[in-house]
Amino acid sequence: MNSMNTNYSIRDEIRDFWSERAATFDQSVGHEIFSEGERKGWQRLIRKHLGEGQGRAALDLACGTAVISHLMNDVGFKVTGLDWSDAMLAQARAKANKRGTDIRFVSGDAENTMEPRDSYDVITNRHLVWTLVDPASAFKEWFAVLKPGGKVLILDGNMGRETWVKGLQKLWTKISGKPAASHMSPEMMARHQKIRSRVHFSHEMPAEAVVDLLRKAGFVDIVVDRKLGDIHWAQARKMPFLRGLERMVQERFAICARKPG
């Protein structure tokens, strides 16, 4: 990371951070899927809001190692996965090759995709919106890329919100002298917090704030779905106790919105 370069922006820092995470990304619960129960939960959620794919064109933004891309492929979408980290795309392509899927992968910025206008039936993303420097512009870009009548499905959460479990974790750390279990090293955690302090949603990201920006970008029929308990329970069962408990009480949600037409 060349932080001495004055042209090195927050977007560069975000890209480099996730590139360094790529090699071990799929080892973490909540990133890759580790149970059939979780897989079925995600597929249920996708079908609930987007229906069966039936060969429709889907763009999975910030696809990472292609976890959501594969779920979309499983329910019949023709998927393009876009990410600006070459390291993540390398992992995604290797996974797709191993699984024998025909997912197309392209390098690009989720805030400025460079994809053709009015070309996708569906856009998906998971844990992307909190990293956006300018979500208002990003949502306008997604609106333009969707076909009339197309939908965006955002899978995210208000992870900046303090919960009673976070307080319990801090108390345990103070008493025991042991840090809470984490899939990131202290150095990576510090970088993560530094990035978070500089993006648009630097603190909390309530669903209502995301909905407001989607509406201003032109989206209609916006639905906030908080019924993700089956997914979170499946994930929590694979986590250390306090991390699993935190997963169950976090404010996570899916937001689906439609482009008129």
TrEMBL record:
The entry's keywords: Methyltransferase, Transferase
**UniProt signal peptide:** none
For the Methyltransferase type domain, which residue ranges apply? 59-154
Check the record and name the InterPro entries matching this protein.
Answer: Methyltransf_11, Methyltransf_Superfamily, SAM-dependent_MTases_sf
Provide the coiled-coil residue spans: none
Gene Ontology MF term list: S-adenosylmethionine-dependent methyltransferase activity
Q: Which CDD domains match?
A: AdoMet_MTases (cd02440)
Question: From its record, what is one biological process in GO terms?
Answer: methylation
From which domain of life does this come? Bacteria
Task: List, alphabetically, the Pfam families matched.
Answer: Methyltransf_11 (PF08241)
What name does the UniProt record give this protein?
SAM-dependent methyltransferase
